[in-house]
Design goal:
It is built from 6 helices and 19 strands. By secondary structure, the chain is mainly beta. Strands 1, 2, 3, 4, 5, 6, 7, 8, 11, 12, 14 and 17 form a 12-stranded mixed sheet that branches. A hairpin with a 2-residue loop joins strand 15 and strand 16. The structure holds zinc ion. Zinc ion binds next to loops.
Length: 276
């Protein structure tokens, strides 16, 4: 099952269930959008509102998380191309939630950012509150998954001696998420294809089986000392092939369109423009 959040007015959003190329309306969206608890999925399954054509609406990021947690260097080939040692524990950073946009929203590169880069990722969304979840309970706490684009300002990131991530990855519009949430029940989250295509050229391709720390291990690690709440997002990291590690380098440019696809979800597509 797939949950969308779509615009119904200047500052109004509704939730719907995706049915082929149509949306079945499920009522006004709460402030947090679609939070993938078991009860929310059951409610969505029962929705029977008016139908709208998917291509007639503007989609928004489906959930508005309180925490947008990101994982760095979680694929061996990306750690190697970044010339960094493989991490012994997950590398955790955050993006401001104000950087989120939905499918079709425009990524705007700030004037100062001369090395804007793409990172295609799988994101998982927490469906129940947990603290110190382990093993199967950590896996079961995930309620949904989708595509995520960890847009990265390498200039801002690499000009600091510690290569701190948050500033250069949290610019407005630097966190496309969607196009919708997919129910993760019964889905093997360790066997998802992820692919990044920039203006028609495939630049990243991997599978979550190549994650250094899989979803269960990530939930387990993050929830040690930090309560994860329904709606919190964990972006699982990007595979090799980012623009900054290419020869020649391939940064995002005016007019690019970045498509990130995850098996079982579909494609998150966002155009790129430069701030004037
Ligand atoms: Zn990333």
């Amino acid at each position: 099952m797939k949950a969308v959040r779509y615009r119904s007015g200047p500052d109004e959003y509704r939730i719907g269930r995706l049915d082929g190329d149509q949306i079945v309306d499920a009522g006004p969206a709460a402030e947090q959008g679609f939070v993938p608890t078991r009860a929310a999925w059951a409610g969505l399954a029962a929705a029977d509102g008016p139908r709208k054509a998917l291509d007639a609406v503007t989609l928004a990021h489906p959930v508005v998380p309180r925490k947008l947690i990101c994982i760095g260097l979680n694929y061996r080939d990306h750690a190697e191309e970044s010339e960094l040692d493989l991490p012994e524990v997950p590398v955790i950073f955050a993006k401001w939630t104000t950087s989120l946009i939905g499918h079709g929203g425009t990524i705007v590169i700030p004037r100062e950012e001369t090395r804007p880069d793409y990172e295609g990722e799988v994101a998982v969304v927490i469906g129940e509150p947990i603290y110190r979840a382990t093993g199967a309970a950590a896996r079961a706490a995930v309620g949904a998954y989708t595509c995520f684009h960890d847009v990265s300002g390498r200039r801002a990131q690499l000009e600091t001696p510690l290569r701190q991530f948050t500033y250069g990855k949290s610019f407005d519009t630097f966190a496309p998420l969607g196009p919708w949430l997919v129910d993760s029940e019964g889905v093997d989250l360790d066997a998802l294809d992820v692919e990044t295509v920039v203006s028609g050229e495939t630049l990243q391709r991997s599978n979550t089986r190549n994650l250094i720390f899989g979803v269960e291990a990530l939930v387990e690690y993050v929830s040690r000392g930090t309560t994860l709440e329904p709606g919190d997002v964990i972006a699982t990291g990007t595979p090799g092939g980012v623009g900054d590690a290419r020869d020649p380098k391939r940064y995002l440019r005016e007019g690019d369109v970045v498509d990130i696809s995850v098996s079982g979800v579909g494609t998150l597509s966002n155009p790129v423009t430069l701030e004037r």
